[in-house]
Amino acid sequence: MAAAQQQWAQAQQPPAMACNACGQALADITPVDTTALRGIAQAFQAHCAACDQDTWAVRGEPAAVRAFYDALEKAAGQQVQLGKAGPASAA
After folding, report:
1. Domain of 64?
2. What is d(CA 4, CA 10) in angstroms, rounded to the nearest whole number?
3. Cα 52 from Cα 45, distance rounded (Å)
4. Tell me: the pLDDT tens digits for 46-84?
């Protein structure tokens, strides 16, 4: 079942994300397993080689998305920027 969910997430992943720090287009996007994250439909992570920063894109219920970012901030020890991801490819 996990393999099927991973394939579905990859099919739904945005075609590109922009780095929150420098704006560089990020194409190497990794889906995050959100099975145990209530209220989170999808989450993706990408690392920017240009500025060595991570960017996250999270889709789901607003309160769950905020809690996800709060957990990221706690883990990072600093405020993180909310990012935007493009829509899933229609192809």
Report:
1. 2-76
2. 10
3. 13
4. 999 999 988 888 889 999 999 998 988 898 787 776 655
């960017």: which residue's tokens? 55
How many domains are contained in the chain?
Answer: 1
The verdict on residue 37 lying in a domain is yes
Identify whether 38 is part of a domain: yes
79 burial type by CB count under 10 A (0-12 exposed, 13-18 middle, 19+ buried): exposed
CB 84 within 8 A of CB 18: yes
Task: Let me know: does 45 contact 54? Beta carbons within 8 Å.
Answer: yes
**What is the C-alpha to C-alpha distance for residues 19 and 37, in angstroms, rounded to an integer?**
24
Rounded Cα distance between 27 and 7, Å, is 17
Looking at the domain assignment, is residue 53 inside a domain?
A: yes
